[in-house]
Design goal:
Elements lengths: L1 H10 L4 H4 L5 H5 L4 H25 L1 H16 L12 H7 L25 H9 L12
Helix pairs in contact: 4-5, 5-6
Length: about 140
């Protein structure tokens, strides 16, 4: 029975508009661009180096406390509605508050012509598992 489900997943048609041109197994294993792999490895290297330094100075409990704080702050979100979650505490903890990327000012869904205000009650039902479907109908 499991093999039947696997055959169905493999034989499904590929939706190029949703998943892009390179949505095969190779695209899942390799990053889209060689520079992206270098950036990810550099970020991981410096994060590990910073953790090692703080452990040498403050002890291992400091890193454990910082990881717990990061887990708590990454899960905190505002209920679905008119105001999006900003995750300000998590960004301040990780130091990404000063990073300003193109996703911060381009392609804002609230500025779209087809944007519909999300239904707060339906969004909470989806988040709690009582209803199915997307939280916001304008992101179909």
């Amino acid at each position: 029975m499991a093999s039947g489900g696997m055959k169905r997943e493999i034989s499904e048609t590929h939706d190029t508009l949703r998943f892009g041109i390179n949505a095969g197994v190779k695209a899942d294993l390799a990053p889209p661009h060689p520079l992206q792999a270098t950036i990810q490895s550099e970020t991981k290297f410096w994060a590990d180096k910073k953790k090692f330094g703080t452990e040498a100075i403050y002890g291992s409990a400091f890193n454990i406390l910082k990881d717990l704080d990061a887990q708590i702050l990454s899960r905190f979100q505002r209920p679905p509605g008119s105001l999006p979650s900003s995750m300000l505490g998590y960004e301040a903890l990780t130091g990404s508050l000063d990073d300003f990327g193109f996703e911060d000012y381009l392609n804002m869904p609230q500025e779209s012509d087809s944007f519909r205000q999300p239904d707060m009650h339906h969004g909470m039902e989806v988040r709690l598992g009582l209803s199915k479907g997307p939280i916001c109908p304008s992101f179909n």
